[in-house]
Design a protein that fits this description.
Length: about 80
């Protein structure tokens, strides 16, 4: 995928993950976005070659919550 297209895709995925996280954890936007941007999940999501971007925002949010609660991500096998 072209880099500009990938950057545009991230701009669509990130707000969805943040919105789901805010609802799931009753957290304000600033905390939710900070937790996502400081996570291993986001670092991995930014790498187009990991193909994480093809997972649903709901699954990505579940992975974020898992990372924040346990310090570990149990990556899906399809990843």
């Amino acid at each position: 995928m072209e880099q500009n297209a990938f950057a545009g895709l991230l701009k669509l995925i990130v707000p969805s993950i943040v919105d789901i996280y805010m609802k799931e954890k009753s957290q304000p936007y600033d905390i939710a976005i900070e937790r996502l941007y400081n996570s291993t999940l986001y670092e991995t999501l930014e790498n187009q070659d990991t193909w994480l971007w093809h997972l649903s925002p709901f699954l990505l949010c579940d992975l974020l919550i898992e990372e924040l609660e346990t310090g570990y991500i149990n990556w899906p096998e399809e990843q």
